[in-house]
Amino acid sequence: MKTYQTHLKTTSSHGVQPIANRKPVLKSSAIFPSIVRGELDTRVLFMGYWLVKRNIPEVSVLRTLRDDSGNILFRELQVIDTVRAYEVSVSAILEQIGFYGDTFIGSIELEVFSTRDLVFPYPAFVLNYVSPAASTVVHTTGRIYNDLEDLEENDDIQVPEAGFDIIPRPGVDPYFAFVNGTVSSKNACVRIELINAEQQRREKTLELGDLEPYQACFVHFMEDNDREFLDGAKGTVILHHDLKGFFPRFIAGHMVDDADVVSLTHTFYDTTSHRSDDAYWSNADATRFEDSTVGFPVQVHGDRYTELVVYPNHSPAEMRFDLRLCNADGIVVACVADVLHIASGQAQLAHLDIGALFSDYLAENTEPTDYTAQLVVRAGGSVPTRLKFGLNLGRRSGLDIPSNICFNARVPNPAMLTKPMSFKWAPLDPGSESTLVMNNYSFVRDYTDAAQVKLKFWSHSGDEPIEKQVSIPANGSHWFRLSEHPDVASLFDRHPGWVTCEANSPFMVCWYFFDAGNGVVGADHSF
């Protein structure tokens, strides 16, 4: 792990003096564990964003498919010189090379090459596990390091991985997955700390054996006694590992074999042992800025629900949380103070049911309304920089497997105030109920600036994009539902497309979610 401050310096973030001898990034990459069985496919979705965000005229993308032992089955180079939607289907590649087995386990790697600085060594790709029953997504997670310098920079601080939900229901099988690096790993093992809703912990060790280079691993770890330990409530785990040679961000989620459903999220650093000065962010002006803020979409009507998950994986700090419910116009319609208090050194797992917390208000206001929520963190002027949360957008009907998006708190960085705009992009999929939520909120206490947003919708065909304009009030939101825009759906022509959002405000954040209607919600934050 690199510190948040180092991350800002190495990625040339706005208002931050970059490291003097920073090495330009001419290659970025991602590698994803892949599974194909029945009607379940693994897809990688991306758009030619380098051309619009970096003004790079073209890049080359090398696609490599490997089996579960790391053997190369397919390789192809593609030049990206058009801003459009791209899709890589593992099942289509398997059909092309004549693989017709019942189940395929392996990996798909995409390496991006450029003669100009890409800035980030990890590209904006989306892993999509899709079947008629569900479409789940997560952004780029693991990657093979570019070189020794890249490895040393990211392995500066060794920490476990954590920060995702475990559902204990029978028939729902939790997993985590990764692709090994370029060298073999002998006697690999993972020590698992399972944490239940009562903050109790139990440990066990999984022996993974010898791992070959590029070996793909789906690890299932839930046993009957683990389900008993969780006692019917969601829990979480911390993964202590000794794996090397690749960026150790795992994908994670749940599998429902008889429904061809694999849900997706990703793990995050467990920084509970990281207590140095650079583990915290100081509030430069506590009269003007909140210590930290989190904003997120809320669905609470019908069978839909929203949970905000606080994980026990942050640096020690005493924190109190206040929660505000805002309508689309940015009006705070309800508040709950002190929804959670965490004492220093007492990090805890908490699932905050947003509908239950605002039940009094919602009981009197039953008309379906677009809401967002803001969590305000009070931490005495110093907040952990790696403060991560989970967002569960779910449906209680059907399989009831929510989104479990991993996302971070927004620290009060004064440099953001001088940033003139924000540029976000996200996929939309006509194959399911597809929604984009744009939220305009800030760590500034008395935030009043509206955001003017230009939307462009990009299809797989490369046809001229459709443009739309929206205005989002301070603390407000705009919900774009693909089903309400037949012109965009027609442009996409039943293929996944992309939307870019360019705002005249630095504070816009975006979320997207896919809902197939059977209780499985796939979702993530935008790039």
Explain what you see:
The chain is mainly beta and 527 residues long. The chain has 3 domains: 4-153, no CATH class; 159-269, Hypothetical Protein Tm1070, Chain: A, CATH 2.60.290; 277-525, no CATH class. The protein has 8 helices and 37 strands. The strands form 10 sheets. Strands 11, 14, 16, 17 and 18 form a 5-stranded antiparallel β-sheet that branches. Strands 1-6-3-4 form a 4-stranded antiparallel β-sheet, with helices on one face. Strands 5-2-7-8 form a 4-stranded antiparallel β-sheet. The longest helix is centred in the first third of the chain and has 8 residues, at 90-97. The two termini are 20 Å apart.
